Amino acid sequence: PAMIRLEHVGKRYPDGTHAVDDLSLDVAAGELVTLVGPSGCGKTTTMKMVNRLIEPTSGRIHINGRDITRTDPVKLRRTIGYVIQSGGLLPHRTVLDNTTTVPTLLRWDRGKARARARDLLDLVGLDPDTYGKRYPHQLSGGQRQRVGVARALAADPPVLLMDEPFGAVDPVVRDRLQTEFLRLQAELRKTVLLVTHDIDEAVRMGDRIAVFAQGGHIEQYDTPLAVLGT
Ligand code: ADP
Ligand code: ADP
Predict the structure, then answer these.
(1) Closest Cα partner for 126 from 95, 154, 156, 102?
(2) Residue 191 CB contacts under 8 Å (≥ 6 apart), including other chains
(3) 69 lines ligand 1 (CB under 6 A)
(4) pLDDT at 74 (0 to 100)
(5) How far apart are the CA of 156 and the centre of ligand 2, in A?
């Protein structure tokens, strides 16, 4: 059964821009699917719809068998972790406070949330004693990205949405972050949608690749080997 299912999803923005058109996609539990394609082909719009930051103008989206428009928003926050380029951190909050954002929204016990945040910072390779008290501007790009991943994992969601998660760092750091994330994913087995405009990253990271074409539909949805062979 699909963990994420998009059925004939479309999005037309109020100004008339048709960003996504009749998009259907199934992602199995524990699978990492990369969405790849040129700028402006609807990848970010798709991610925002799955995270319910914006509503589709047609079609349906199911997560774990449930229509997201009929899921309690708090429950959806617990189900989905969202990672964006540059980490998307709150600039006036420390690394530790950024990492506990979602558990705080979910009204977790403060001590439990902080202990969990420290474990996660460790997991992504940041010593919590050294980095927990810093502010985002006191980190390198790669470190901000690591905090973004730790924050997204804080409430242990089964689904991770990652929008150009390694886009804002230099190639050497990107390579290291990709390797580390693959290692983490082998352990955690999240259901992941990862957006990239880089075909090499899509091939390296994806169990399957959804190749987007201009106009917001999928041209090909297959394994890296099959996509490379065409
Ligand atoms: P990608 O992530 O693949 O670069 P986007 O989903 O960001 O693509 O954008 C898809 C299309 O929708 C583009 O033509 C973009 O200009 C347009 N678009 C994105 N956001 C909006 C918006 N809020 N209002 C109008 N058009 C938008
Ligand atoms: P990277 O190779 O990971 O991109 P940078 O060259 O950006 O690293 O940063 C190197 C080190 O300097 C990192 O350990 C980072 O924590 C630290 N650093 C970067 N900017 C600041 C800052 N504004 N205040 C304190 N430390 C910083």
Answers:
(1) 95
(2) 3, 4, 27, 28, 29, 30, 31, 32, 158, 159, 160
(3) no
(4) 87
(5) 28
Residue 87: what pLDDT?
A: 82
Query: 40 C-alpha vs ligand 1 centroid, how far in Å?
Result: 6
Give the Cα separation of 210 and 91 in Å (integer): 33
Residue 45 Cβ contacting ligand 1 at under 6 Å? yes
| 28 touches ligand 1 (CB under 6 Å) | no
pLDDT score recorded for residue 85: 86
Q: How far apart (Å, rounded) are the C-alpha atoms in residues 51 and 148?
A: 16
pLDDT for the residue 28: 97
In short, whether 148's Cβ falls inside 6 Å of ligand 1 is no
ipTM for this prediction? 0.75
* φ and ψ at residue 26, rounded to 5 degrees: -120, 130
User: What is the 42 CA–ligand 1 centroid distance (Å)?
Assistant: 6
Q: Are 128 and 160 in contact (CB under 8 A)?
A: no
Question: Chunked in runs of 10, what are the mean pLDDT values of the chain (230 residues)?
Answer: 95 96 96 96 96 96 96 91 90 96 90 94 94 96 94 95 90 92 95 95 96 92 90
pLDDT at 106: 86
Phi–psi pair at 8, nearest 5 degrees: 50, 45
C-alpha–C-alpha distance, residues 11 and 21, integer Å: 7
Q: What is the DSSP letter of 13?
A: -
Name the residue with the closest Cα to ligand 2, atom 11: 140
Edge to edge, the sheet with strand 66-67 lists: 18-28, 2-12, 58-63, 66-67
